[in-house]
Specification:
Layout (H helix, E strand, L loop, with lengths): L13 H11 L12 H9 L2 H16 L2 H35 L3 E6 L2 E6 L8 E5 L7 E13 L1 H4 L5 E2 L11 E2 L4 E13 L5 H6 L10 H30 L4 H15 L4 H18 L2 E3 L3 H6 L4 E4 L11 E6 L4 E4 L10 E3 L2 E2 L6 H12 L4 E3 L8 E3 L2 H12 L4 H7 L2 E8 L4 E7 L4 E7 L1 H8 L5 H16 L3 E10 L11 E9 L6 H10 L3 E5 L4 H11 L11 E3 H5 L11 E3 L3 H13 L4 E5 L5 H6 L2 E5 L5 H6 L2 E3 L4 H38 L11 H18 L26 H25 L4 H19 L11 H18 L1 H7 L6 H8 L2 H14 L16
Parallel strand pairs: 9-21, 9-24, 21-23, 22-23, 24-25, 25-26
Antiparallel strand pairs: 1-2, 1-3, 3-7, 4-5, 4-6, 4-7, 8-26, 10-11, 10-20, 11-12, 12-13, 14-15, 16-17, 17-18, 18-19, 19-20
Helix pairs in contact: 2-4, 3-4, 3-8, 4-9, 4-23, 7-8, 7-9, 8-22, 8-23, 9-22, 11-12, 14-15, 15-17, 22-23, 22-24, 22-25, 23-25, 23-26, 24-25, 24-29, 25-26, 25-28, 25-29, 26-27
Length: about 850
């Protein structure tokens, strides 16, 4: 049922919003497919290795082997519990990230405009929509101008649909939740929210469970290969044991236990949790991950294609200079505070006495959709809308001109919104004698459209002045205006040049150091902007993307790209006056060279390029919802340095997964080798099934999970990125696994043979030694030995060692594991093998060939 349109100018009161939210609930689509305890438990118990353990449990029950039955059951329970906890925690972290990316919407409440989270909307709320916004709920249009909406996501309609407001009491067109405003603007009243909206009804039919990432799928494949190899080797252990006279039942359970212990079955859970926690850490550093695969891809980024405004610069535009054919006027003041003055040639001006400057500011304020927001609770002045338009509002306010007053005196009758192809915006306003037509945009675009006849000389002077201002790093807008009769088409009205507005958006103080960090990490920065080429070069020089003008560094324009004058876009570091299609071409050119591209953007026209890039990065504050929804990463602080921090986190996550693989695979390989080679050195059955499972429980449980929280290794951001096609066991990791496993195997066998030769309890010695060495590898694989950043790992290692000792000395565990208490001296000898594992991890790390890719040596490519 349609909500009555009322109080559109003031919106709902806060009290009414609270009341309606209690009735309607939050404007959120309920997620289905979320992980539950029971679904996670079912998935854990369906794991092939767990099923094998359950078969072994049945065999031991039939054989009357109570001790092995208890140990196997305990391992199944503990491993399943750990897996459930990890999966639920990862799901919770991923859900929290989704909440962080909830869109915001501009509304009218309590008689003023404000930004609120989309989930806070209620029926009856008055929302203001502009190009690039995602419609947050089902709404009825009450005001619209040149409004086009892309409904493809809901209806499949490929062509944007025009929407109009109702007239004479009729209902306006409905805007559906989840659709995108691709052009124009609208004021609309919320009709349905959350599950009651069109998007909610469709989402109710969908399963929204997070899918596996590419890395998880690759590791699952690796796990299957490892399981096959382990089963073959364990079958060999079974055969050798039977040939030596051991019972088939004992050797079968032993072989099954060995296969389970040899494969790091906790790897998928560790990977999921590592990715989710990595994404959470990124969020704490103001980089909100919208798609989990971005965490792993970030570590391989080789090219960073960045825009200018708000990313390299502060995005708080300040009008510094006005130029008219009669005057050049400097404007003082900082930020969005409407406090400042006007001077010319160093002398103060009374701006009210200069009609040309007032006409320029008045026109710039009429052709404008932004608003100045006064400070509240000690905060500074701020703006609602595009930073460029807010800067124009501020400059006009310094001259005593205010948007509300002008809009009341000259109501807007029609408009042509800004278009990246036209590079200008046009509005039409009512006057006493007819209509006033105002255009603002790039100097080149307006020059082409309106420089003719008597205007030609002024426009030529404006083009020259714009070049000079752009060379100084200013962003320059031209403003033109003209009058037309009410009975004539306003589009044909001739417009005269009113002047230029030069705005300064200085580079962020930290931008140069950020670019330097990119270069050190082997990431090539590329600037892509719609600004004037001279402005783009000035900013690029200021932050270090290109060298001085005399260095021969080229700046290419969109016109040159269109004309085919740039044969290889990857040879250019600065692009200016580009169209959305050209941004796509630039990104694709780098991808064709096998680069991994991260692309930053904020506008609706950046959406396709953000989607095309390997990592799309949207601005959280000033970005449009289209950009945010198309991106993989949203910068909550609009700071390019946050992208570098996210890359660092991506490398950290990937490195920690590789450390877990070194730890888990080398330990499993050592256990298999001991069981295979033991009989050949007179050890019979080196380890019992229960002992193997206990070792697996202590090493692959808490210790393995704790490895996922290790900090970045020193120098991680001073090396080139990994090739994205590289195997997770590549770059020498599988060789390290074999060397560490071989070292542990030789040490364990030597200790066991010595124990047997000296009439010691050699099997218990071997049991404690294998646990100790694997825990030594866990500590030795740490990137920072004495760091306090991850205290959980040393605590987990200490706890696992104590449980191993308990397995030798606690009577009930002795009975279950088949161990014998060791004299204290023998326990010390077994424990002292831990440094062997530590040394093996450190020595193989030091001896492994490391890729050293610097910015001067190119970038890694996809293999």
């Amino acid at each position: 049922m349609r909500t009555p349109v009322s109080a559109v100018d003031t919106g709902l009161s806060t009290a009414e919003v609270v009341r309606r939210r209690e009735e309607s609930g939050p404007n959120q689509v309920a997620q289905r497919g979320r992980v539950s305890v029971w679904s996670s438990a079912g998935a854990q118990l369906r794991d092939p290795l767990v099923l094998v353990l359950l078969v072994a449990c049945v065999l031991t029950v039939l054989a009357g082997d109570l001790s092995d039955t208890v140990v196997i059951a305990l391992v199944v329970v503990v491993n399943t519990t750990v897996g459930i906890v990890q999966e639920l925690r990862a799901d919770r972290e991923i859900t929290a990230l989704a909440e962080l990316t909830a869109p915001h919407v501009r509304v009218r409440r309590d008689g003023r405009e404000q930004m609120v989270p989309s989930p806070d909307l209620v029926p009856g709320d008055v929302v203001l929509l502009a190009e690039g916004d995602v419609v947050p709920a089902d709404c009825e249009t009450v005001e619209s101008s040149a409004l086009l909406v892309d409904e493809a996501a809901l209806t499949g309609e490929s062509v944007p649909v025009g929407k109009a407001a109702g007239r004479d009491g009729d209902a306006g067109d409905m805007l559906l939740a989840g659709t995108v405003v691709v052009r124009g603007r609208a004021v609309a009243v919320v009709d349905s929210v959350g599950p009651a909206s069109a998007l909610g009804r469709i989402a109710d039919l969908m399963d929204t469970r997070v899918q596996q990432t590419p890395l998880q799928r690759r590791l699952a494949g690796l796990g299957r290969v490892l399981a096959l190899v382990a089963i073959v080797l364990c079958a060999l252990v079974l055969l050798l044991g039977v040939l030596r006279g051991n019972s088939l039942e004992v050797m079968l359970v032993t072989a099954i236990s060995l296969a389970v212990a040899a494969v790091p079955e906790s790897l998928p859970a560790v990977v999921t949790l590592s990715l989710a926690l990595g994404a959470r850490r990124m969020a704490a550093r103001h980089a909100v991950v919208r798609r989990l695969p971005a965490v792993e891809t970030l570590g391989a980024v080789t090219v960073l294609a960045t825009d200018k405004t708000g990313t390299l610069t502060r995005a708080q535009m300040v009008v510094e200079e006005l130029w008219t054919p009669e005057h050049t006027i400097e404007v003082s003041g900082t930020g969005y505070s409407p406090v400042g003055g006007f001077t010319s040639d160093g002398e103060a001006l009374v701006i009210a006495e200069h009609a040309d400057a007032l006409d320029l500011l008045r026109a710039a304020l009429l052709c404008n959709d932004a608003r100045l927001a006064p400070p509240t609770e000690g905060e500074e002045w701020s703006g609602l809308g595009d930073p460029t338009e807010v800067a124009l509002c501020t400059a006009a306010a310094k001259a005593g001109l205010y948007k509300d007053d002008l809009d009341a005196a000259h109501p807007r009758l029609d408009e042509v919104p800004f278009d990246s192809t036209r590079q200008c915006m046009t509005t039409v306003h009512e006057t006493e004698t007819g209509v006033l037509v105002v255009s603002k945009g790039s100097v080149e675009a307006l020059h082409v459209q309106h420089a003719d006849g008597d205007n030609a000389a002024d426009w030529d002077a404006a083009v020259a002045q714009a070049e000079a201002l752009a060379d100084r790093g200013f962003r320059v807008l031209a403003v033109a205006a003209g009058e037309a009769r009410r009975d004539r088409p306003w589009r044909k009205a001739p417009l005269r040049l009113l002047g230029l507005v030069a705005m300064d958006d200085p580079a962020k103080p930290a931008a140069r150091s950020t670019i330097d960090r990119c270069a050190a990490a082997g990431i090539h920065p590329v600037l892509i902007t719609g600004d004037h080429p001279a402005t783009a070069r000035a900013v690029a020089e200021a932050v270090g993307i290109v060298g001085p003008r005399d260095s021969g560094t080229r700046v290419a324009t969109g016109a040159q790209l269109a004309a085919g004058e740039v044969p290889d876009p990857t040879e250019v570091r600065v692009f200016a006056r580009t169209t959305p299609e050209q941004k796509l071409d630039i990104v694709q050119a780098w991808k064709d060279r096998c680069a991994v591209v991260a692309m930053t953007g904020d506008g609706v026209n950046d959406g396709p390029a953000l989607h095309r890039a390997d990592i799309g990065v949207a601005m959280g504050h000033r970005g449009t919802e289209v950009a945010r929804q198309a991106a993989d990463l949203v910068l909550a602080d609009d700071d390019l340095d946050t992208v570098v921090a996210a890359v660092d986190e991506g490398r950290r996550v990937y490195a920690n997964i590789r450390r877990f693989l070194l730890f888990g695979l080398s330990g499993g390989a050592a256990e298999i080798a001991v069981m295979l080679l033991g009989p050949f050195v007179g050890l019979g059955v080196p380890l019992l099934a229960a002992q193997i499972l206990w070792i697996n429980l202590l090493t692959h449980g808490l210790t393995g999970v704790a490895m996922g929280a290790e900090p970045s290794e020193p120098g991680a951001m001073r090396r080139g990125p990994r090739p994205p096609g590289e195997s997770v066991l590549g770059d020498g990791l599988w060789q390290r696994v074999l060397m560490v496993a071989a070292g542990m195997t030789l040490t364990a066998l030597a200790l066991a043979v010595w124990g047997q030769a000296t009439d010691r309890y050699w099997q218990s010695l071997l049991f404690v030694a294998l646990v100790s060495m694997q825990l030594g590898v866990a500590i030795g694989a740490r990137p920072r030995m004495l760091t306090l950043a991850n205290p959980f790992l040393p605590l987990a290692v200490a706890g696992s060692f104590l449980l191993a000792v308990a397995g030798v000395y606690v009577p009930i565990l002795q009975a279950l594991l088949g161990t014998t208490p060791l004299p204290f001296g023998d326990l010390v000898v077994a424990a002292l093998t831990a440094p062997v594992g530590w040394c093996l991890a450190r020595l193989t790390a030091a001896g492994a060939a490391r890729r050293k890719v610097s910015a001067s040596s190119g970038f890694p490519t996809r293999s």
